[in-house]
């Protein structure tokens, strides 16, 4: 999670003019831009910025929810509790794995967007440095 927050913080610090990302489509390292993608980097930037507060709130909003009726009908037998604990442990592991995959994907997208923005700025700097005859 720290890598995700670090990547989004870097993106927010570096991307001073998000409008430069309009019409720029994501590309894999060493590959041509993906013309099939309908989402340009500006839209991705907006999405990544919108997702960040949700990730920051995270479990706080989930823990505020009250238990459902199904959760209050607990069987107190020891066998049921052990089976329930094993099921809860498995469900938690599954969800944590999914969360880790999502955060890894978001971090990768955020880093790629920041890199591409830096490349755009370099291209602008180079073109401004050349004489216009």
Q: What this model shows, in words?
A:
The protein is mainly α and 133 residues long. The chain contains five helices and no strands. Helix 1 runs parallel beside helix 5 (78-129) and helix 2 runs antiparallel to helix 5 (78-129). The longest helix has 52 residues, at 78-129. The protein is elongated. The mean pLDDT is 81.
Task: Supply the key terms.
133 residues, mainly alpha, 5 helices
Short description:
This protein has 133 residues and is an all-alpha fold. It has helices spanning 2-14, 41-57, 59-63, 69-72, 78-129.
Based on DSSP secondary structure assignment, what is the total number of beta strands?
0
DSSP strand content: under 5%
Which parts are unreliable, with pLDDT below 50 for 5 consecutive residues or more?
Answer: none
Output the radius of gyration. 22 Å
What's the story with the biggest beta sheet? none
Number of helices: 5
Coarse morphology: elongated
State the helicity in percent bands.
55-70%
Mean pLDDT: 81
Element-by-element helix/strand order:
HHHHH
Strand-pairing-aware structural class: mainly alpha
Set out the fold topology.
Blueprint: H1 2-14, H2 41-57, H3 59-63, H4 69-72, H5 78-129
Helix pairs in contact: 1-5, 2-5
């Amino acid at each position: 999670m720290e890598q995700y927050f670090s990547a989004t913080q870097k993106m927010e610090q570096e991307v001073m003019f998000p409008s430069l990302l309009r019409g720029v489509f994501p590309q894999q390292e060493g590959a041509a831009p993906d013309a099939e993608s309908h989402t340009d980097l500006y839209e991705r930037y907006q999405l990544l910025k919108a997702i960040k507060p949700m990730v920051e709130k995270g479990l706080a909003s989930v823990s505020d929810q009250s238990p459902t009726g199904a959760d209050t009908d607990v069987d107190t037998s020891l066998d049921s509790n052990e089976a329930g604990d094993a099921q809860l442990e498995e469900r938690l592991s599954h969800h944590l794995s999914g969360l880790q995959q999502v955060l890894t994907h978001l971090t990768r997208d955020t880093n790629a967007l920041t890199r591409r923005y830096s490349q755009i700025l370099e291209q602008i700097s180079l073109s401004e440095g050349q004489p216009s005859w």
